[in-house]
Structures are given as C-alpha cells and as structure tokens.
Amino acid sequence: MIPMQRPISPSWLVVGFVTATIGLGPVAQSSAGAWVGNWFRGIGEAGRAVAIVVFVLTLWGTVFALEPPISVLASTIAGAVAALALYVIVFVVLSGSIEGWTTPQDGS
C-alpha cells in the first residue's frame, strides 16, 4: 500500500524561504553573524563537528517534543533549501567562481 502524500503548504514554504534568506543575508552580515562565524571557525574541526551534532540533536528533540505536522516541516525545509540553492547560484553568477569558499588546507 502506498502511503498518502502530504501536500506542500505554500505559506510555510514562503516562511522557510524568507527565514533562510534573512539568515543568509542581513543576519550573516551583522556583527552577531560575524561573531558566530569567527567563533565557529575558531573552535576547530572537532569543535565544529560537536556543535553540528548538538544542533541536529536539539532540532530532532524539538521536532519530537512539538510534533509539528509533516507538511509544515517539509514545506519549511523545502523553502530553506530553495533559498540556499538560490544563494549559491547568485554567488557563483556574481563572482564568476566559488574561489572564495576554499580554505588554505584545500591547496587553492
């Protein structure tokens, strides 16, 4: 038996897109965004891995605790992924390359 498909909610799709766009743009360029970026780079690879795992576990626990409708969750995530994809495309088109995304360890 095929499970029923849950519809995508356009309003939550927009919420995810707008939230991610604000996070990738004005928030990332603010002094708070710069502080978080510097802190994240400063904690090293192991520290970043721990921070990511803690973030994912916190999100996972919140989803289980709040039990949001799957269509809301899927729509919000889809909107955020669309914003991230658009950000990457615009960055590459405007800069002509992804050169700014390398690290010294990459050998570039």
Task: Sum this structure up briefly.
75% of the residues lie in helices and 0% in strands.
Give a description of the structure:
It is a single chain. The protein has one domain (10-91). The protein contains four helices and no strands. By secondary structure, the protein is mainly α. It is globular, with a radius of gyration of 17 Å. The termini are far apart.
Question: In terms of topology, how is this protein built?
Answer:
Layout: H1 10-29, H2 31-42, H3 44-66, H4 70-95
Helix pairs in contact: 1-4
Helix content: over 70%
Tally of helical runs? 4
Number of strands: 0
Shape: globular
Give the low-confidence spans. Answer: none
Mean pLDDT: 88
The main pleated sheet reads as: none
Whole-number tally of structural domains: 1
* Sequence of secondary-structure elements: HHHH
End-to-end distance, in Å? 51 Å
Structural class: mainly alpha
The portion of residues forming beta strands comes to: under 5%
Core attributes:
mainly alpha, 108 residues, globular
